[in-house]
Write a structure and sequence with these properties.
Oligomer: heterodimer
Radius of gyration of chain B: 19 Å
Number of strands of chain B: 0
Number of domains of chain B: 1
CATH architecture of one domain in chain A: 2-Layer Sandwich
CATH topology of one domain in chain A: Alpha-Beta Plaits
CATH class of one domain in chain A: Alpha Beta
Number of strands of chain A: 6
Order of helices and strands of chain A: HEHEEHEEHHE
Structural class of chain B: mainly alpha
Largest interface: A-B, 12 and 12 residues
Shape of chain B: globular
Largest sheet of chain A: 4 strands, antiparallel
Radius of gyration of chain A: 20 Å
Structural class of chain A: alpha+beta
Chain lengths: 160, 308
């Protein structure tokens, strides 16, 4: 009987979904594409170990490391962001096809086309700590600039 | 029933000319009402028609190892049978008919189900085979109740002629039979809680998994025609026959459509309110719970025959 009352209430309340051209509002908790800030990354690779879908790859080199993220493989669980002690990763709110905020959602035809790689130079511990402290006190733009100055080189990849 | 009347019934009303748009309309009503009950927008009015047109325009991908002729034949047989079943319904007063047309109607109503079973096995897909096995198990279960209910109504009236049954006076047995038919319709139309054969998100679409393009369009049409035939059977059994010299046919047609519409809404509410049952629960439901309807109907029919 309860289910019939619920159906009647639903009928009276009207629909809650939207027709195609309308865009739903993105809630603050929406988890979009993972955004990487090379200036803050220390190369600890915790994100790579926490990533259950293996969307994040990490290759350690001599004096540098390469961090890659493949949105086509990402399940947007948020575990990498949660585990990043340096706050180098954050969840994008509008940077996702499902958020429907973009005019053209990312389209890929081959596997790994959307993959984006960053090669970041390793910093000495003291300098790293100093950079992190500066970055924490400064804004987002300042952090990115500091990171690029420190040797971050975004490699080619698909649009996020 | 002469040839001209038979052709008019089969091709015009309540046959193809009426039944095909009615099939799309009922499919839309079912989808829309379920959507509204689940707080969704639901499809636009013309969606089932455009779905059909779109599928007609698509080509079927090659299916190596599958008997193409059989795969193409099953949906066509299902559509023909369902359209024939709708054409047999005595919607208009004194529209003809013949002794035994009820048996033909029951056979035609069952044929789409047999075609679905055969199509699933012909497709040689594991999902198709599972869907077909489920459809077969379900068909054996609900048909006992469905057939016994109709046959007991017919036996109590001493006729197997649909028109005589439609104009028969209402008795408790009549209502019992209609109730039993209503209980069987969700299984016949593959809607919740008996949407097992084409269980979405579980076995893809069961016997329809390997179908695409015009063949899938024919299955969709056959499904819509089954809706018209199933709800129309209930409508003809419960519709009051009002004798009006002028405009009686229009009134009868309107009553038929209105009752069918009501039955579609009722079944949609049931579909929205319930979740899919497992096959063992479904079979148990029909064999243990609803068989009582059939037993009551048959015993009432035997009692009425002896009394008369």
């Amino acid at each position: 009987m309860n289910i019939l009352i619920m159906l009647w209430k639903n009928l009276r309340r009207g629909y809650q979904t939207l027709l195609f051209p309308a865009h739903p509002r993105v809630t603050p908790r929406f988890r979009g594409l993972v955004q990487f800030d090379p200036a803050l990354c220390t190369g600890c690779a915790v994100c790579r170990f926490r990533c259950t879908s293996r969307a994040i790859e990490f290759k350690a080199g001599k004096g540098e490391f390469t961090w890659s993220y493949n949105p086509g493989q990402c399940t947007f669980c948020g575990r990498c962001v949660e585990g990043c002690a340096e706050h180098a990763l954050k969840e994008g709110h509008t940077e996702h096809a499902l958020s429907q905020q973009e005019a053209v959602p990312p389209v890929y035809t081959t596997q790994g086309e959307l993959k984006k790689s960053y090669t970041v130079a390793r910093r000495p511990p003291a300098a790293k700590m100093a950079t992190t402290a500066t970055a924490r006190s400064a804004g987002g733009d300042a952090r990115t600039t500091a990171g690029l100055e420190a040797g971050a080189t975004p490699a080619t990849g698909g649009a996020q | 029933m002469n040839l001209l009347t038979a052709l008019a019934r089969l091709l015009i009303f309540p046959g193809l000319l009426f039944a095909v748009p009615a099939a799309w309309f009922f499919l839309w009503v079912e989808r829309k009402s379920v959507a509204l009950m689940q707080e969704r927008v639901g499809p636009p009015f013309m969606q089932p028609f455009w779905d059909f047109v779109k599928l007609l325009g698509k080509s079927t991908p090659p299916r190596p190892g599958i008997a193409g002729l059989l795969m193409r034949a099953w949906p066509l047989i299902a559509v023909s049978a369902a359209a024939g079943a709708v054409g047999l319904l005595p919607v208009l007063p004194s529209s003809g008919g013949f002794e035994g047309d009820l048996i033909l109607l029951l056979a035609l109503l069952e044929l789409p189900s047999i075609c679905i079973i055969a199509a699933g096995f012909s497709s040689r897909s594991i999902f198709g085979e599972i869907g077909s096995a489920r459809e077969a198990a379900l068909s054996v279960s609900y048909n006992i109740v469905f057939l016994l209910a109709i046959v007991s109504i017919a036996a109590s009236q001493h006729t197997f002629r649909l028109e005589a049954l439609a104009s028969a006076p209402f008795t408790p047995l009549h209502w019992l039979g209609v109730l039993a038919i209503l209980v069987c319709l969700p299984a016949k139309l593959h809607i919740n809680p008996f949407s097992l054969p084409n269980a979405e998100q579980e076995i893809y679409s069961g016997p329809m998994t390997e179908y695409a393009g015009p063949e899938l369009a024919m299955w969709e049409l056959s499904h819509g025609l089954e809706w018209v035939a199933g709800t129309g059977l209930v409508a003809t059994l419960v519709a009051p026959h009002i004798a009006i010299p002028w405009g009686g046919a229009w009134l009868a047609a309107c009553i038929f459509v209105a009752i069918s519409f009501g039955v579609v809404l009722l079944l949609s509410a049931l579909a929205a309110a319930t979740a899919r049952l497992a096959i063992d629960s479904s079979v148990r439901f029909y064999w243990q719970c609803t068989l009582i309807f059939a037993v009551l109907a048959v015993s009432s029919a035997i009692f009425m025959r002896f009394r008369s």
